[in-house]
UniProtKB/TrEMBL annotation:
The keyword NAD does not apply. It comes from the Bacteria. The keyword Membrane applies. One of its GO terms (biological process) is regulation of DNA-templated transcription. Residues 395-599 form the Histidine kinase domain. Keywords: ATP-binding, Kinase, Membrane, Nucleotide-binding, Phosphoprotein, Transferase, Transmembrane, Transmembrane helix, Two-component regulatory system. The lineage of its organism: Bacteria, Bacillati, Bacillota, Clostridia, Eubacteriales. Its EC number is 2.7.13.3. The chain crosses the membrane at residues 21-40, 187-206. This is histidine kinase. InterPro entries: HATPase_C_sf, HATPase_dom, His_kinase_dom, HisK_dim/P_dom, HisK_dim/P_sf, PAS, PAS-like_dom_sf, PAS_fold. GO terms for molecular function: ATP binding; phosphorelay sensor kinase activity.
Amino acid sequence: MMAKINIKDYLVKQPIIQITLFKVIVSIFLFLILFILFYGQNFWEKQAIKFNYELLSIVSSVQGETQLSIWKIEKIKKDIGLSKDNKIGQINIIVQSIIKNNNNNYNYNHSIGYYDNELNQAFLDNDKNTISFNEINSELDLNKINSISKDNKIIKVSLPIYEQGRLVGYVFGYAHNSDLVLTSFNVMSAIIILALSLSALIMISIRKHMKQLQWYLEKFGHIIMHGNSGKEEILNKLPELKPVLKKITSFTNDLKEVNSALEISKINFIKIMEGISDGFYAIDRNWQFTFVNKETQRFMGKSNVDLVGKNILEVFPEFKDSISYEKILKAMDENQTVHWEAGGLANPNQDHEFHAYPYNEGLTVFFRDITEAKRQQQEIDRLERLNLIGQLAAGISHEIRNPLTTVKGFLQFFGSKAQYQNDKEYMDLMIAEIDRANIIITDFLSLAKSNSDNVKSQNLNEVINKVLPMLQADAFNNNKEVVVELNTLPNIMINENEIKQLILNLVRNGLEATAENGHVRICTHLKEDKVVLEIKDQGKGIPQVIQEKIGTPFFTTKESGTGLGLVISTGIAQRHRASFDFKTGPEGTTFYTAFPAKLAQGKDLI
């Protein structure tokens, strides 16, 4: 059943000329089969009659001559002076001579013989004897003129011999039935070969005319596509195509006008799309690019040839796992405009703004790179928050310091009195805490003002060594360690107190994130024209969800934290024109502060 379906589908896909030629060939082949079937039955019957007739003819010829020579045979049989063997020998010579005289023009594989009743002896053609007399005698009845053996292997013909009205013997002939089949098959094969040859010539002739017809049709198609050259010749050969050509010419002219208008629209559309600064591309419902403008090619780093006609999922395999894929799929399924922000096709790390507009055949997408715009907006938001904190700090600093100064003065006064000598230790502790509060306020005020005091050329390694004992003491108290790896550095313009504060903030944050028996590593090295300070902890890393909030004022994950440590550190780095960044992962977090090595004058600091 499958084979029939496949053949049918195959024929449906073939040109009409090929199908017609195939039908003609099948018709001729079927006619040839029917001819052989109907003709074959009569042929075999005629061949059998002819075979028997020719065998009977030669037996009849031998019988006639044997009948004329029977007196010789009877004379030999009556000669009492001869033994039986001598009689048989002489009779055999006579029979063999008669058979040879009448058996030279017969081509079938047969045997002719004479059987003598009195001697009960068969005289066979010694040259062509292929069947024993016992086999003939057991299978065939010599009394019958024409007979066939029981297993249909032998055909026999026999004629009687008389002498003075007395039956004295038989002349017989016999042959294999297979000889008849083989001879007939050879004749039949010749007829079939002749018929096949004739059919092949007919098919070649038909194919030649079909090819000529195909050539004329192809020429007609060429006229339709490219003009009227040679039209008269084709129409003279195929006048039936005149009305067809007339209608096609009318449709073609209309189509040319429509194509011209579409081409103009296409050119205008391309000019508009190429002129916009945004990226623009279109895909069909099979997700294949149908158009990309130059801005899109620039964004994706590929040419028009690399994109148009290609499946977007093949060009960008990772696209299927992106937010943009889900949004475009939603736009196609729901046939609604969709707007979203996500990474670019070729640059997932860059932020892009997308607008997708579906239509019947596919979807168009406008996009633009907003990475820098978002960074600038984040920086503006951060600066606004810092400015707000600075204004807040400037507004309340004096209000806080004034009562603290009063409290400190009274504590110093009471501490000088004799009756408070037993409490002097506690008063000194309170005075120290007030001093520390004043220092914190001073650091807090650093967010609000530019601090260019005490900026001088110093080596970053010296500042680290000064603050290192304090850091190691903090680490030791928490069963942790601070490890340093300091490389040779040039001097840079820095404010020592602020850099100490930066290092203290970052190292203490690292110690809080590091488990017991762990360590925080402080490294310095020179990279191109930057003096780099690296502080790496052995914590579990900063979760992805809060990484963007790092450095936001008052944002903290600590129970007693203020959320100002990293904000102050960022401000210190900015005033020193240093970059401030971090990398985090399961093995810990590293903060990088890169100072410009060529900065030589304090006045350049902000």
